[in-house]
Amino acid sequence: MDVLMTGVYGRCGTAVIDRLHEDPEYDFTYFNRSDRSEGEPYGELDTVVADISDKEALESAAEGQDAMVHMAAYPYTDGEWSDIFEPNIIGMYNALEAAREQELESFVFISSNHVMGLYELDNAPEIYYPDHDLVVDHTDPVRPDSYYGASKAFGEDLGRYYVEQHEYPKQFYALRVCSVRMPEYDHPYGDAEKGVDDGEFERGSEEYEHTVARMKAMWQSRRDFAHQVECCLDDDDVEFGIFSGVSDNHRRWYDLEHARSRIGYDPQDDGEEWDAPPE
């Protein structure tokens, strides 16, 4: 399968590269607004260097592809509308137009938990600990917590429009990713340890413990994320689907049964299995 992947050198893109780049089932084309120099991580990979706002470059890269995994976006919840508009709104339109014009069969959209972020804000910090009773799934009303979250909700809706009103893409998958991290912090203590490394708080503080508790609910390991993307690429049944992107964490509040039953997602990791950061 020939797969175009946009926004490849962030946390999510590198997780897919690390797990699937060598898989003979896939031939990836990487599209990113900047390249990696030789000697840097991923510097050996060929990259189409262009911005997602460059419609012609994206359409050219999509030629001959079977699928697109669209990750390129402005990723911060504190962004203003001026930050979000071009990469997340225009960029999403350009990606779907490229898929339509080049007749790609499937489109995997890396959405975000922030589409549903107000459920968390309304219930934090109690929601971070075991025995809460909230479960959020694909049937619940969207409640974005930011312009970023709203832009991802727009992307989901635009994807539905394309698969239902155009011939291509024929399949659209939205993954509401929770917390994927770079390899150094790929564990449920990752955000807390990064906070310590950045001098934001001390290990063992209340903020540290809340950060650990949240990640034990929200963590999606890099291997589970790459596996979920692969589930979407391998699926030939779903026309339009929204799926929670999270590991099989005991205290998660995002539903996994839909992803298990529809695309065969079988996450291997659970934040509850960790009682300390790696040494």
Oligomer state of the chains in this structure: single chain
Overall 3D shape: globular
Order of helices and strands: EHEEHEHEHHEHHHEH
Q: How many β-strand runs?
A: 7
Strand order of the largest sheet: 3-2-1-4-5-6-7
What do you see in this structure?
The protein has 279 residues and is of the alpha/beta class. The chain has a single domain, classed as NAD(P)-binding Rossmann-like Domain (Rossmann fold, 3-Layer(aba) Sandwich), CATH 3.40.50.720. The protein has helices at residues 11-20, 55-62, 81-101, 117-123, 147-165, 190-197, 206-218, 222-234, 257-263; strands spanning 2-6, 27-32, 47-49, 67-70, 106-112, 171-177, 240-245. A seven-stranded parallel sheet has the order 3-2-1-4-5-6-7, with helices on both faces. Strand 1, helix 1 (11-20) and strand 2 (27-32) form a beta-alpha-beta unit. Helix 2 (55-62) runs parallel beside helix 3, helix 3 (81-101) packs parallel to helix 5 (147-165) and helix 6 runs antiparallel to helix 7. The longest helix is centred in the first third of the chain and has 21 residues, at 81-101. The radius of gyration is 18 Å and the shape is globular. The termini are far apart. The mean pLDDT is 96.
Characteristic key phrases:
globular, single chain, 279 residues, Rossmann fold
Summed up:
The protein is an alpha/beta fold.
What is the topology?
Blueprint: E1 2-6, H1 11-20, E2 27-32, E3 47-49, H2 55-62, E4 67-70, H3 81-101, E5 106-112, H4 117-123, H5 147-165, E6 171-177, H6 190-197, H7 206-218, H8 222-234, E7 240-245, H9 257-263
